[in-house]
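re: ur question from yesterday

yeah so i grabbed the chain u mentioned. its 203 aa long if i counted rite. heres the sequnce exactly as i have it in my notes:
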Amino acid sequence: MFDLIVQIITVTGVLGVAFLMFAENVFPPIPSELIMPLAGFAAARGDLNFALVVVAGTFGAVAGAVIWYEIGRRVGLERVRRWSERHGRWLTLTPKDVETSAALFRRYGVFAVLGGRLIPAVRTWISIPAGVADMRFGPFLIFTTLGTAVFTFALAYAGYRLESHFDRVAAWLDPITTIVIVGGVAVYVFRLITFRRLPDPQS
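ran it thru and got these structure tokens back, copy pasting raw so excuse formatting
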């Protein structure tokens, strides 16, 4: 699995990195904690340019964040909450998740956007309350890009530095990579099956 993902990233290049990071922020197929280190690893081997890997990963992730920001801005908190109640099953997104993110944003504002991009469980959903609160797009984009750039650089650099230890890294990372992907799918399926609507407190 390790070699397969590295090969996919190598063949598709930085466009593939951007697409995977975009998809991960909209509907996570492979976690960015796996995408960016492997992209950095490919860069260390000379298959990709490291700077372009970071730029592409950041661009893709920010593009995904902007989509959730626009959803929040256009429909508002109440409609997002009701949407998550009716259709959030497929993203395992509950009204409580939406309200928690909104509360976090109201309390910490732009710092929530910046810090939220560094937290795996929060970085996608933090864009929703930013849009709901009608945060100005300029500051949202700046803080989102800054936080995302730090995150993607750190992950890519970790993979870049491990290149000289390819044999040892591949030996233990290959089963871990498989476990992460299979485990992620299993968790999603489990949450999908066990997902239930909570009573609407507003009704």
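noticed a couple things. The two ends are 48 Å apart (CA to CA). also Helices lie at 2-26, 32-44, 50-87, 95-108, 110-116, 127-132, 137-161, 166-194.
anyway ttyl
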